[in-house]
Amino acid sequence: MTYLPLQIIVSLFVMLIVFRLKKKFKDNSLKTSEFIAWLVLWLMVLVVFWLPQTTSYLALLFGIGRGVDLAVYLATLVIFYLVFRLYLKIDKQQKEITKIIRHLALKDEDKNHDQS
Amino acid sequence: MKTFIIIPCYNDAAFLERVINSVKPYGQVVVVDDGSTDNSREIAQSAQAIVLKHRLNRGQGAALETGDLYALREGAEIVVHFDADGQHQAAEIPRLIEPILKGEANVVFGSRFLKSDDFTPFLKKWLILKPAILFQNLLLGVKLTDAHNGFRALSRKALELIRITQDGMAHASEIVEKVKLNGLKYREVPVTVLYNDFGQGFGGGLKILADWLFGKFNNP
Predict the structure, then answer these.
(1) Cβ contact, residue pair A95, B165, below 8 Å
(2) Which residues lie closer than 8 Å to B73 by C-beta, 6 or more apart?
(3) Residue A103 with chain B: CB contacts under 8 Å
(4) Does residue B119 register a pLDDT over 80?
(5) Which of A9, A30, A64, B34 has its CB surrounded by the most CB atoms within 10 Å?
């Protein structure tokens, strides 16, 4: 095995993350579905690092030459999706801020009206 | 008819007093101070306009919607959107609201290009506005000679139906879109727009497009 140190580092890293996930799940800050999705994702990372040949098998299934390429493609897709989701979430929060600001503006006017 | 003139304002102290005084004869003036850091608010108050204050800057679309909701609540029958930077001519308000008074339209848009004397900078006109107008007409299925001209009038019916959700500059496209979707009658009237500066550049145009498209996902 040529990249044993990397495998160990990644494994420790994944263990740390899974440990934190479990804690968050217990604190009820993660939904069951979210917990499972994240767990599967990180376990997949473990599999990829310990059994790299599995990715080659999957890659062939998708018609891509190398396993590493498949991993990069998938990672890019996931990142794009997450950025998109973040964009929508920020947009939504911006709109909610506007609603609050508007509510306050109209309420302030009411007060002025009552005073005068 | 009870007319409200909505002036969204963000650090426009330099022009505000003159603008308010010029539109005063045509209706109730409502200045929406969109989180200005200069003394716009004091100026508007001393000019005896109704002032609505956004505590944070939320954008022109957000400010207009606040003004619209206020006007709706106060029983406005006509609302005029008017820029705070002195670009629009108050004397053209009667011509703008005339089709509404006559019952010929629910929404009247001002157009820079229905007149022979237009003061639009050459590059702005041909590189930004003309493509934007073409794009707007193709995408929204309307027939307009101008786009993103902030000078417009809405009847109460239009005011009740059109909610602006685009906080930034894309509200101008959103209004056109909602006029079309609600089957409101619209009309264009020639107006004069004077330029103090270039206004929205090409980058601004792209941002409007992006805001408008992304807006579709959150407000289906």
Answers:
(1) yes
(2) A106
(3) none
(4) no
(5) B34
Cα end-to-end distance, chain B, whole Å:
35
CA distance, residue A36 to nearest chain B CA (Å): 27
B81 sits in which H/E element: strand B78-81
Q: How many CA atoms lie within 13 A of B11 on its CB side?
A: 6
Q: Tell me which residue of B178, B146, B141 sits closest to B159, measured CA to CA.
A: B178
The one-character DSSP state at B92 is: G
Instruction: Give pLDDT tens digits for A39-81.
Output: 998 998 888 888 878 878 888 888 888 877 888 888 899 999 9
Beta bridge partners of B153: B80, B108
Nearest residue in B to A97, CA atom: B58
Query: Does the beta carbon of A91 lie under 8 angstroms from any beta carbon of chain B?
Result: yes
Between CA B52 and CA B62 the distance in angstroms is 12
Mean local confidence (pLDDT), B175-200: 86
pLDDT at position B218 is 66
* Interface ipTM above 0.90: no
Partners of residue A106 in chain B, C-beta under 8 Å: 52, 66, 69-70, 73
- C-alpha B123, offset from chain centre: 22
Q: Is the pLDDT of residue B214 over 80?
A: no
pLDDT digits (tens, 9 = 90+) for B160-177: 999 999 998 899 999 999
For chain B, domains (ranges, CATH) are 3-218 (3.90.550.10)
Decide if pLDDT at B220 tops 50.
no
d(C-alpha A58, C-alpha A15), whole Å: 24
* Apex A107 CA angle, B33 and A109, nearest 5: 55
Q: Which of A89, A93, A94, A102 to mutate to test the interface with B (most CBs of B within 10 A)?
A: A102
Share of chain A above pLDDT 70, in %: 96
Interface touch A105/B54, C-beta < 8 Å = yes
